[in-house]
Amino acid sequence: MTDKNRKAKIIGKKDLFLGAVLIMLAVILLIVFRIIPEKDGSIVRVKYDGEIWGEYPLAEDTEVEIKTGLGRNVLHIEDGKVWMTEADCPDGYCVEKGKISRGNEVIVCLPHRLTAEIVEADEGADSAIPDDRQVDIVAQ
Q1: How many C-beta atoms surround the C-beta of residue 4 within 10 A?
Q2: Dihedral sign computed on CA atoms, order 137, 131, 63, 101
Q3: CA 4 and chain centroid, separation
Q4: For residue 105, how many other CB atoms are within 10 A of its CB?
Q5: Predicted structure pTM score
Q6: What is the pLDDT of residues 80-117, one digit of tens each?
Q7: Among 3, 16, 75, 96, which residue's CB has the most CB atoms within a 10 Å radius?
Q8: Which long-range contacts link 86-90 to residues 24+ away (Cβ below 8 Å)?
C-alpha cells in the first residue's frame, strides 16, 4: 500500500458522518441556549467564606469596599452591571473577570474566599445580612 492510499484511508465515510453529526449537534445546542431566556438578576449577593456579606440592588449605581481578614476588594455597580475594580489578592483574576450582568453569573476571588453573584431578590424574605453589615446610606 502506498503512502497516498494510507492517507486516504485515515478519513473515511464514517469519520465524515460522525463529524457532520457532531457539528449539527453543536449548532442545535447553540440555538437552544440562545432561545431559552436567561433570567435577569435584580441584586448582587456578596459572600465571604460561604456566608452572605451583603446584598446590593443592580438598579443603584454604587461602589462597595469589602474588607475582610484576608484582604480588600472593591466592587463597582453601574448601569445594571457589576465588576471588581480593585483587589489586593496575588492573582487578580476577579478584576480580570470583567463585567457581569445576567442571573447566576459569578465573580470569584479565591484567595479572599469572596464571591459576587447576580441573583433574584427574595421578595418578602427577611434579610440574611447581619445588621452591622447592612448599608444604611450611600453617598457619592
Answers
A1: 7
A2: negative
A3: 50
A4: 18
A5: 0.60
A6: 999 999 999 999 999 999 999 888 899 999 999 999 99
A7: 75
A8: 87/112
**In 3-state terms, what secondary structure has residue 25?**
helix
**Residue 99 DSSP one-character state:** -
Phi/psi at 32 (nearest 5 deg)?
-60, -45
CA torsion sign, 50 to 55 to 59 to 64?
negative
**What are the cell numbers at 29?**
445546542
Task: Kindly state the cell numbers that stand for 27.
Answer: 449548532
Q: In Å, what is the CA distance from 89 to each residue of 41, 94, 110, 129?
A: 27, 9, 9, 25
Alpha-carbon gap, residue 112 to 87, rounded angstroms: 9
CATH 2.60.320.10 fits 43-121, yes or no: yes
